[in-house]
Amino acid sequence: MRIFHDDRQRLHAPSLELHNGGFTAYAETPARAEAMLAVLGATETPADRGDAAIRAVHDADYLAFLQAAPGLWREAGRPGEAIPYAFPVIGRRTLGLTRIDALMGRYAFDATTPITAHAYISSYWSAQSALAAADTVIGGERAAFALCRPPGHHAGADYCGGYCHINAAAVAAQAMRDAGRGRVAMLDIDYHHGNGTQDIFWARGDVFYASVHADPATDFPFFWGHADEVGDDEGRGATLNVPLPHGTKLDEFRRAQATALEAIARFAPDALVVSFGADTWAGDPISHFALETPDYAVLARDIAACGWPTAVVMEGGYAVDELGHNVASFLGGF
What we know:
Distance between the termini: 8 Å
Order of helices and strands: EEEHHHHHEHEHEEHEHEH
Helix content: 25-40%
Strand content: 5-15%
Number of domains: 1
Structural class: alpha/beta
Mean pLDDT: 96
Number of strands: 9
CATH superfamily: Histone deacetylase domain
Number of helices: 10
Radius of gyration: 18 Å
CATH architecture: 3-Layer(aba) Sandwich
Strand order of the largest sheet: 1-4-9-8-5-6-7
Shape: globular
């Protein structure tokens, strides 16, 4: 399987995040990519396909904000990385805001996702890796892997959050649609629900989004990913959420994934994007499932057996020492 990654994806390196009421060391570090590369070996550098595919998913003003925010933060005399603290939870609308504090709240949904001087460039190349994987599959190969870091599935069309700034999986899915694949499915098997991906395709019937994840009643992102969320307008019925409890092991997760795959099969996709997170592993420091390393090969074989051309896009996984082995097990399952 071809693997795509660009060294610039490791430039984004925040020092702190706000977690459980206090500042702590940032969990989504460049060491994650380095751990995967150490096990997976050689990768291909993606070509620069420009930002048209990114703009097909993300709002232009939001992308401009991501690029401008670090400079505006410094101009305001602020130290460290830009972190929001005020959010428009009621009456969210377009306003002529200029103060960096207001813009941060306008374009973010949490305070755990700093915008560093390299946040945009690292996320841009993460999306380019996803585009390269999508193009490889469009070109006729059975599967390809985008070693994306930072992850992306929490980023919506015009907001960041959950360590995510650009939604690489959504960019890949939209690129497949634009390349003529009439129906594209997305299977999200990260520990956390991909609220940004769901939001982007919520009212569309041409992209089916299925997610198996920790119950948002107990886990981030809390407000999205509940079982009664099924899409709206033309997308009603094109969203499926399968929440699971803490302590979930392989058998239960596999049954939930089978439910998602059966729904995707009824949708009859021309291609599949898998948002893969290894934070479902038993030893992950910020998650509470109990999958073991060999389990990932089992899950991947079940997906591969469906026969859909598949672009795998990396999302979470924060047990750095085991991350590469967990990813290798999943890719090996194909």
